[in-house]
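On clarity, I found the account of how folds are encoded harder to follow than it need be. An entry of this sort, consisting of the sequence and the corresponding backbone structure tokens, reads as follows:
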Amino acid sequence: MCALKVSNVMSNHIEPIRCGTPLTQVVKSLLENHITGLPVVDAERRILGFVSEQDCIHALLVSNYHCEGDPIVDDVMFREPLAISPNMAIVDLAQKLGSGKPKVYPVVEHGKLIGIVTRAAVLAELARIGCGLELSKGTRDDD
């Protein structure tokens, strides 16, 4: 299990959020991807921030109350997100996830976003390894 790395469980198919994106579009992306937060990137995929469901709820509540229109992600994103390396051991990440926040980590290599890893993905992999379960991950090469 110590050899298992973040790169084994990260997702790289979910599009990050770009600066200037309206918050309603961010919410749509979060809901469609069944995820609690996403990194915010520039055109070169450098991470500029992170936006969560919680950020969106608060901003949309305030915006709707004051009839201010649709805020953009730049207004609400967290500007110092915690990013991890694809080479980080899953056991090390699991210890971080056990302490609470965040639930989603951007995975960065050479300063650019290459994917994300969620608490659910780590949990599923730990359960698969620990219990010999075949969950619908499809990453085993022993067939």
Notes: Residues 6-131 form a domain with the CBS-domain fold (CATH 3.10.580.10). The first strand starts at residue 17 and ends at 18.
